[in-house]
What does this fold into?
Amino acid sequence: MRAVRLTCKHWEALSKSRSFSKMHIDKIRSGESLMIAKMGMGCNLYLVRIVLGGVNEDPFIECQDRLTCKDKQTKISQVFHCDGLLLCVLRMRDDVTKYIVWNPYLGQTSSIESPYSHRPAGWNWFTYALGYEDKGSTCRGYKLLRFRDKFFDTPMHQYSCYEIYDFDSSTWKRLDITPNSSRRLPYWGGVSLKGNTYWLASQRNTGQDLLDDHIICFDFTSESFGPLLPLPFYAGANDDVTIACVREDKLALSLSRINEAGELEFEIWISTKIEAEKVSWTKFLTVETEMELHPLFNSGSFFIDEEKKVAMSYSKTFNIVGEDGYLKKLKFRERLGIDRNCSVMLSSYVPSLVHIKQPAVGDKRKQHKDFEAQGYDKKKG
It folds into this structure.
């Protein structure tokens, strides 16, 4: 199997000096807004820096580097961020037998084999998360979660699968989680915060199963889901809700709706206290804008600068909105030199000095057989 190597010339030079790297990372954590931009279904990712500027200065976008996979046959479908690490899910039609975990700052990668030696029938879609278990002040045990959760009225269509990979032991195991008929777990869109992952979710059997009116947390230490946690606002069937994180400290929620005046209104909330079973919130920003502009949610993510009290995201242009009608539109595709028809997905990124533990050398075939013998690949999706 060909090794996948991904490089970043700018960071390669910085990472040669650990003391300088630590100073550089501390600077980024304290003020700069970095994002990873994935373009289409290709293998290229971009490191993007947003500079908001001072009172009389216009914001601008700076492309720090293009992060390129040297194996041109490798196509990245999804990217998930946790603690400076990226989990890269490869395009399904190209390879379903492995995942790539990558620290682009250090230039380190690791290939993790799927617990199956082939694609299980009917199990083409998983929800993914990357997180860690705190094992002390300086020790973290990283884990990869993937799951399917379906619950229908017909017993034969009730099925689920929850699997977790432990980086320390280099092994997969199936979690003993009983499907819950009162909740609907998400298919995508989770955010990682302090080692755990949070998703929008909903109650089942309410007549509005597809309404994201709660959040739910997966705790990587207990390897279990917490309870459904209510949102700080009412979200109707025609409202849009998005979840994000503020650097590595807080959760954020956005709500878009048509107000009584017929205007498009955005509310941004940030967490003041967060635990696996309890979250409290405060309203951060309210914005009313023109109907034809939908600036914050088309990319599936948004970003916040608490100090300047603005929210940012991509929708045809990179949009920055704030109080008192503040709106800036920045050319994004042109700045990166990409095709206008190419889809854009953004995620916040904070670099780190986390070293990726390489999988232990061993016989993977036995684990493949153990999983397949349990009959999950016989179920139909």
Observations:
- The chain has four helices and 27 strands.
- The radius of gyration is 21 Å.
